[in-house]
Amino acid sequence: MTTIAKKTDKDPVIVVLQLSGGNDYLNTIVPYNSFEYRDYRPIVNVEENDVIPVTNSVGMHPAMAPLADMYKDGKMAIIHGVGYENSVRSHFRSMDIWHTCEPDKLGTEGWLGRTIKDIDPNKENVVTGVSIGPSLYRALVAPGVPIATVENLDSYGLLTDISPEDKRDRVLDRYKKMYSSTVGTGPVMDFLSQTGLDALKGADILNVAPEMYSSSVEYADNSISKKLKSIAKVHLADLGTRIFYCDHGSFDTHANQLASHRYLWDTASVAIRDFFDDLKEHNAADNVIMFIFSEFGRRVRDNGAGTDHGSGGVCMVIGDSVTGGEYGEYPSMKESDLDQGDLVPDMDFRSVYTAIIEDWMKLDPVPIVGGTFEKPSFITN
To answer: Does the predicted TM-score (pTM) go above 0.85?
Structure first.
């Protein structure tokens, strides 16, 4: 493992927030002075007077006011035109590309799974990576990498009531027998058995987080707030978790976009602000950044009620160690510059990953992202 010397005693932590479904770039970071934007979006647009200006040419959706404050404080990077060549407009394939860094073939390992393997090659901590939600995200998957997948943190540790060890062994034995008839024995069975053991170990460790947590921050009663509150609980418990992952959506706004997009960004923006306020209250925000992405943007032209699948999108990175500002160029909206009616991305998503891995996590990015990519400099060194 190639590492670079760190400047802080705290290990760097990343929280990934996936905007599932394809977030509309044009109505998130709005080119409000563009006549092309108004021409292409006669119905599904953000009124110029409602936009929160970032510069003289672009601004944020009005529901993003808490994030706009973070941007003004210099703690948020907006990264324009992110994607990959020959954009795929399928949710599943595009998300797979973002998760595995394999745009030309079906990937088998997630970029964060490889990162966790680099951080903890001997599996000394089974909660180095924690996935918050009902399923495990492909970005975290890699052979031999344990991931704690948590849907409800407050009930996640219930299996820890099974004691002593011989009783747990009997539970795992039943687990193996349950699946042996369908998957047989050998490496697959060994993997399932180890997965069960890692899950129990993870439950043991994470079970302490809720009871240790105390905060004056009052999170809203919605899914994204609950997810980020769970992440705050685990981070504040100081369990050695380095990578958190959760999602928010659905941003697949083919219809009723104006109302649904506003709601999605309103709940996300407030939750993100509450999350960082919570960490700051406990002096635990300085070693955390949040990376926000979506699998693709939406079409430049609206469809009268919403927008369909597109290509180039926007990423955001938030944190005390982020050098705020805009990175990259907003893609051209000239008709001749569009690709099948879509914005053309001009920054490879692996460039963004490279900056996160090398400048923040202090690891060698090449084997993780699968090559060398010029990186934007949004991490303060």
So the answer is: yes
